[in-house]
From TrEMBL:
A GO biological process held by the record: L-arginine biosynthetic process
Family: Belongs to the peptidase M20A family. DapE subfamily.
UniProt-listed HAMAP family: DapE
Cofactor comment text: Binds 2 Zn(2+) or Co(2+) ions per subunit.
Organism: Natronocella acetinitrilica
Cofactor(s) annotated in UniProt: Zn(2+); Co(2+)
Family annotation (Pfam families): M20_dimer (PF07687), Peptidase_M20 (PF01546)
Binding, Zn(2+) 1: H66, D99, E162
Protein name per Swiss-Prot or TrEMBL: Succinyl-diaminopimelate desuccinylase
Residue ranges annotated for the Peptidase M20 dimerisation domain, each copy included: 175-282
NCBIfam families assigned: dapE_proteo, PRK13009.1
Length: 380
């Protein structure tokens, strides 16, 4: 068994359903301390965060990730128990195998080889690990970044181990992400009897045409760095449960993933204008859970692409598609941020898995990134 696989299995055995870390970070801390990293616990409410650094000088290369995992869903539907790592046909099964305990294991083994070969590396290396990525993301990476900013500790390059790959490991580097805007809308009508609609105002009927317009709207074509902005309704609730009552209100949750063609504020104004045009009586609450960020080609993208080419023979494509990530908290500090991890086909699913050989490839890629960015010139 490879070291990376071994460690990935040890991490999967820990039932770290968000925000519980279940001892994963203690394991990581022990391995890092043996390499000369200085660990620092940053606990906020029920979230465990680990910041561990080796070296006092810049530039600082940080690996970032999370030990929390999403709930398993019905365990009986798994082919093997989700917290018992199991290998079948070259694949490692278990909750978190791909998202993202496999990447964390690959970080550690890459660091072990790198520090052994380059004990006097340039600059510094750090790990930023949280147990609040899959949850509300309020006491995790964002809080660690606040602490680092307060003490002027600056990350120059950050590699997030989210499962970025699509068809084969290393085919995609995520070099940014779209923004995410949530709206919570309540449309008010007047409750009444379904047989006497003229004495009521049905908020579901009133909302309908506005929803059609919002759903059909073409927001933008995206741009060179971003896919188009999308609008999706995630929840709609209205009604008393009775078949003969027109409800007084309807509640809607919607989300926009937006490119840099819009700001969150412009989108809010646009949606308010649509709702007003439909003359709705409504209240709306907004949450901007991510602003778009992008890392232009530069030292980190080049080092990551070079390490992938060396390890796999293939050149990666840059993408900002999909969801958002904790990179949204790190990029605004001025750090270059990329995401590179295993194939994401089974993340959050029943029977989540990762290719065993991909774990070793990832570890080699991460070591290649370290070598390109902070190995002393004579040895890189
Ligand atoms: N619940 C949190 C964080 C939500 C982050 C989530 N990210 C992904 O699902 C990653 C998927 C991918 O790699 O494309 C999301 O985008 O919703 C919050 O809302 O703050
Ligand atoms: Zn993840
Ligand atoms: Zn996830």
């Amino acid at each position: 068994m490879s070291d990376t696989l071994d460690l990935a299995c040890d991490l999967i055995r820990r039932r770290s359903v968000t925000p519980d870390d279940a001892g994963c970070q203690r394991l990581i801390q022990e391995r890092l301390e043996a390499l000369g990293f200085k660990p620092e616990w940053m606990r906020f409410n029920d979230v465990t965060n680990l910041w561990a650094r080796r070296g006092d000088n810049g530039p600082l290369l940080a690996f970032a990730g999370h030990t929390d995992v999403v709930p398993t869903g019905p365990e009986a539907r798994w082919s093997s128990p989700p917290f018992e790592p199991t290998i079948r046909d070259g694949l490692l099964y278990g909750r978190g195998a791909a998202d993202m305990k496999g990447s964390i294991a690959a970080f550690i083994t890459a660091l072990e080889r790198f520090v052994d070969r380059h004990p006097d590396h340039d600059g510094s290396i750090a790990l930023l690990i949280t147990s609040d990525e899959e949850g509300p993301s309020v006491d995790g990476t964002v809080r660690v970044v606040e602490v680092l900013e307060q003490r002027c500790e600056k990350i120059d390059w950050c590699l997030v181990g989210e499962p970025s790959s699509e068809a084969r490991v290393g085919d995609i580097i995520k070099n940014g992400r779209r923004g995410s805007l949530n709206g919570r809308l309540t449309v008010r009508g007047r409750q009444g009897h379904v047989a006497y609609p003229h004495k009521a105002a049905n908020p579901i009927h009133l909302l309908g045409p506005a929803l059609v317009e919002l759903g059909a709207r073409h927001w933008d074509d995206g741009n060179e760095a971003f896919p188009p902005t999308t609008f999706q309704i995630s929840n709609i609730n209205g009604g008393t449960g009775a078949t003969n009552v027109i409800p007084g209100e309807v509640d809607l949750l919607f989300n926009l993933r937006f490119s840099t063609e819009w700001t969150a504020e412009q989108l809010q104004a646009e949606i308010v204008a649509i709702l007003d045009r439909h003359q709705l009586d409504y209240a709306i609450d907004w949450t901007v859970s991510a602003r778009p960020f992008v890392t232009a080609e530069g030292a980190l993208v080049e080092a990551t692409a070079g390490a992938i080419k060396e390890a796999t023979g293939n050149a990666p494509t840059l993408s900002t598609a999909g969801g958002t990530s904790d990179g949204r908290f790190i990029a605004p500090t001025g750090a270059q941020v990329v995401e590179l991890g295993p194939v994401n086909a089974s993340i959050h699913q029943i029977d989540e898995h990762v290719s065993v050989s991909d774990l070793d490839t990832l570890s080699v890629i991460y070591e290649g990134v370290l070598r390109r960015l902070i190995a002393p010139p004579s040895t890189s």
